[in-house]
Fold these 2 entries.
Entry 1:
Amino acid sequence: MADKTNPVDIITGHRRMRRNRKADWTRRMVRESQLTVDDLIWPIFIVPGSNIVEPIDAMPGVNRMSIDKAVEAAREAADLGIPALATFPNIEMSLRDETGSNSLAADNLINETTRAIKKAVPNIGIITDVALDPFTSHGHDGILRDGEIVNDETVTQIARAAVAQADAGADIIAPSDMMDGRIGAIRRALDASGHQNVGIMSYATKFASAFYGPYREAIGTGGLLKGDKKTYYIDPANGTEAMRDAALDVEEGADMLMVKPGLPYLDICWRMKESFGLPVFAYQVSGEYTMIKAAAANGWIDGERVMLETLLAFKRAGCDGILSYFAVEVARILAKR
Ligand code: PBG
């Protein structure tokens, strides 16, 4: 009974939010969102050669791996129950050119990685990024002509690269380039080459973000990139435009949508899930990872708790899963619970 003389009761009446928070068991009972290993997609970086595990300075705890080591990592990820990997190649500088032609090679680094992992660890999904930036000498995601990233020519090439990736065994193609019309073009090219079962996870809303810095070191595009990506990535100020861009991807045949970066764009995750009902993924990008690791290394935050809290926040915001460099670390923690 509310006590009519108690000032708190006068304000709250019978409504007291803290009742459900009073013990660990009540908190667990009313918990709305859960993070499980099924939510995790692990992005990994590949380098040519063998027996190489090389740390990335700007991403403490993340390594570039040669294919043989990536296979071992894939096996560990699969054993932990992580559903899928997202692979990113760091190819030799001598193979990078103005048009990113190596993206089309059947035996390029990303396709050879897919083949090796599929052969050794068939029960983990492979998601391949099909943008041109790992392959271009200028670090842009498309073909650069007279200072412009040309849209349609890039789309034609990306669709061909996607077919090469599917031929190698990729399960899901993930275009991160933000060219107009790419989802439809990739869908048609995949279908025409017998890859009806290969899905498309669109990097539907990719923002022109400063959070990608460490990734560019990881794949070796940091020093190459001339200018910025503002003529093709979305302005961080624009949520409505992002929704319109995602709607086009849905119409063109995307099976799943992605928001990138993640934490600063939780509003977009929520709006996309509400609007389309498609699976929505967030990419907790390199800069997000690095900020947590750096602060934790200084003892300024509890790294493990902040990591878990950010991943849970994605679930609360409606995401079906998260691409995260923390995937293995988190999967190990979840396995112990
Ligand atoms: C580019 C691409 C980027 C990332 C993955 N693919 C962004 C960029 O370099 O502009 C970023 C991933 C990360 O920061 O973790 N196609």
Note: The pocket of PBG is lined by residues 129, 131, 133, 141, 176-177, 212, 215-216, 229, 285-286 (CB under 6 Å).
Entry 2:
Amino acid sequence: MNSGRRQTGSRIPDFYNMNLDERQAHLVEALGRPLDGLLGPEGLEPALADSMIENVVGVYGLPLGIATNFVVNGREILIPMAIEEPSVVAGASFMAKLIRESGGFTAKVDPSHMIGQIQVLDLQDLQEAETTLHEAKTQILEAADEAGPMMLAVGGGARSIAVKTFAQSPAGPMLVFYLIYDTVDAMGANSVNTVLEGIAPLIEILTGGRTHLRILSNLADRRLARSTCHVSPASLAFGEFEGKDVRDGVVEAWAFAAVDPYRAATHNKGIMNGVDAVVIATGNDWRAVEAGAHAYAAREGTYGPLSRWWVDESGSLQGELEMPLALGTIGGATGVHPGARDALALMGVETAQELSEIVVSVGLAQNLAALRALATEGIQHGHMGLHARQVAIAAGARGDEIEAVASAMIEEKNILVDRAEELLRQRSDG
Ligand code: MEV
């Protein structure tokens, strides 16, 4: 259960330069409630983990950062991200800061329609079986709803069917039955699989064939999420880089991914840095999201970028990300993991659709962060800078000391806590 809507600004000046305790205190105060599931050491206790999977021996931690500055569909949102890679949270926060200047992200999500598949073999006549299934559509949808009364009770349930036939396959002629099923605020794998197993006997009776696999498809392309944003060239300018050049550099970087699958894979990896971090923090199945994203990226027969960047009539940089997102705010680990529940509460998210709107926007922000860096100073610059700042903070640097110690370590190419401590001692000695 989350605590309902909260109106906290997502802009927290100097959050980056606070220490861990200060950041935690700020967050708890801003939210007006404790966040022990996210912030406390007792987040996921081993005893609870033991009830989630088999052979449990402990729990495994990941850094949890908060991306600031996000405005999605007019709402300010602080976004929890669980990820081990430096620069990701800072990159998302920084791009969100630029994008909020032009109104933030506009996101839209399809209804939660998942696809379930039943493989049918040993058929005498594929065409006849296909026709029979279409004729029996109402009967099948009713049977599916009988097999899933809980989803029906919350407004979900069977929506439609489709059939594909393969005259030839390594297993002989094959028919695939598709059930389109609305899982509302659940990711839906369990519900869909239960229903598929429930209706498989009916599919056998109707077709005279043998049903084999009955399983959800992770290519959730009826559950797409889209986010768009625009940034003015003025907001993109920094250092010696002019805004127009940064804008055009981002579009050229996108063009590389549009023509070359080797680049597209890395381009999409950058998007998934943001997407996965929020998906993990909210207890969702990131393997399912990954599988869907990459299958969708290859939907035209060649692997391509999930996002698109172009220059609009006003000269602004426009970006759009469209991808399948099968996420839940109920069921699975989302309902069990105390950190996941707090993560949803922190974002004030109540529905799976709202969560998807946020996740797809973080993916777009992350993509822009990577392309902007790649198109200008290169990716290593930011990585080293961030790493050095983190090391300086870990060594106890505060305020102005952080930048000074980090810069000295970068110059010396010696970024270690011991060295940072030494530099801090030297500063305080004199
Ligand atoms: C690194 O984790 C992600 C990037 O490689 C993404 C990209 O190249 O677009 C920086």
Note: The chain has three domains: 20-107+229-377, 113-216, 381-429.
